[in-house]
């Protein structure tokens, strides 16, 4: 039987969350970080542990069928490779930063300037779109040091918390793109392996939906139920069960996890009691 070949980052910022999401979709992998290849025990899947930066080429060549990869790397090196699912982790931006003391009004300010970056294709495309000419210095790491050592006037690099910029006396002035980990697919995938990928993607969607949602249970007097239903955002047809206590009911529903804290006080002041909020492992639609 054919197996889907999937690349995940060998080590680095994507590795742990990539392995966790595979585990959360019920795939158990015979691991060993030192192995470069491992098989799943209960799903037709082989995992290849690779450098994030090398993965686009493996996808292009069809050496692997799919990959969990930073979207920013796909934009930089993955011409023609499609991303089929956003995975919600390793969120970051690819941004322009300059020394704190300098001023910046628009991208035009980069005309004739020296820009240090590990993302030359992304930067060149951005400059071209904006009809700006600049000189690129391509460096593979510690890009934030470049302005301090006189190598560049500006940088384009990954920004997440902003602390690396801060520590190096830089400020973010423009955002080229927003990125997160994605599931990418090789243009050379066979139809047999595409079927396996579809099954994997179906499971991923249900886990991702679950991660976005919470299961809420609460008790309330019957006369307050209508008001409570109106308060809970995005609720469609909650389950209502009578409690042993006369005139009281229990209400169950799924809500978006980001919305819950905004309405909790309102729920309480409208008579909700014993509010329980539980995580959801899977939401299969
Ligand atoms: N500070 C950060 N916060 C959030 N996500 C990040 C951050 N830095 C990088 N990422 C994301 O994680 C991906 C992997 O970053 P990491 O630094 O682990 O590897 P790398 O050095 O770019 O790649 P390689 O695996 O080729 O060595 C990046 O492409 C980006 O999508
Ligand atoms: O905004 P922040 O939260 O400070 O994150 C941004 C930093 O994180 C990444 O580096 P990383 O730590 O992955 O080191 P690397 O350059 O060795 O990959 C990126 O290249 C930035 O330097
Ligand atoms: Mg990094």
UniProtKB/TrEMBL annotation:
PROSITE patterns: ATP_P_PHORIBOSYLTR
Keyword Transferase: yes
Cofactor dependence: Mg(2+)
Signal peptide: none
Alphabetical UniProt keywords: Amino-acid biosynthesis, ATP-binding, Cytoplasm, Glycosyltransferase, Histidine biosynthesis, Magnesium, Metal-binding, Nucleotide-binding, Transferase
Compartment(s) where it occurs, according to its Swiss-Prot or TrEMBL record: Cytoplasm
Activity regulation as described: Feedback inhibited by histidine.
Ranges for domain ATP phosphoribosyltransferase catalytic: 51-205
Family membership: Belongs to the ATP phosphoribosyltransferase family. Long subfamily.
NCBIfam families (alphabetical): hisG, HisG_C-term
Name this protein carries in UniProt: ATP phosphoribosyltransferase
Organism: Psychroserpens algicola
Gene name of the record: hisG
């Amino acid at each position: 039987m054919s197996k889907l070949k999937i690349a995940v980052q060998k080590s680095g910022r994507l590795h742990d969350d990539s392995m966790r999401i595979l585990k959360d979709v019920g795939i158990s992998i015979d691991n060993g970080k030192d192995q470069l290849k491992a098989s799943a025990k209960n799903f037709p899947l082989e995992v290849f542990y690779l450098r994030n930066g090398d993965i686009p080429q493996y996808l292009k060549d069809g050496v692997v069928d799919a990959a969990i990869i930073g979207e920013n790397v796909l934009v930089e090196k993955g011409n023609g490779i499609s991303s089929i699912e956003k995975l919600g982790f390793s969120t970051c931006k690819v941004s322009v930063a300059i020394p704190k003391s300098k001023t910046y009004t628009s991208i035009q300010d980069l005309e004739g300037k020296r820009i240090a970056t590990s993302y030359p294709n992304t930067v060149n495309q951005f400059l071209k779109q904006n009809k700006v000419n600049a000189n690129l210095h391509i460096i593979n790491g510690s890009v934030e040091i470049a302005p301090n050592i006189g190598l560049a006037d500006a940088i384009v690099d990954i920004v997440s918390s902003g602390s690396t910029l801060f520590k190096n006396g830089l400020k973010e002035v423009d955002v080229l793109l927003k990125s997160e980990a994605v599931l990418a697919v090789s243009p050379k995938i066979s139809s047999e392996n595409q079927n396996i990928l579809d099954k994997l993607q179906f499971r991923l969607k249900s886990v991702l939906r679950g991660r976005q949602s919470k299961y809420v249970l609460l008790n309330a007097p019957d006369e307050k139920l209508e008001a409570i239903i109106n308060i809970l955002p995005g609720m469609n047809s909650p389950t209502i069960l009578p409690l042993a206590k006369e005139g009281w009911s229990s209400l169950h529903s799924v809500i978006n996890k980001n919305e819950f804290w905004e309405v909790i006080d309102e729920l309480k002041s409208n008579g909700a009691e014993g509010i329980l909020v539980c995580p959801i492992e899977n939401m299969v639609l």
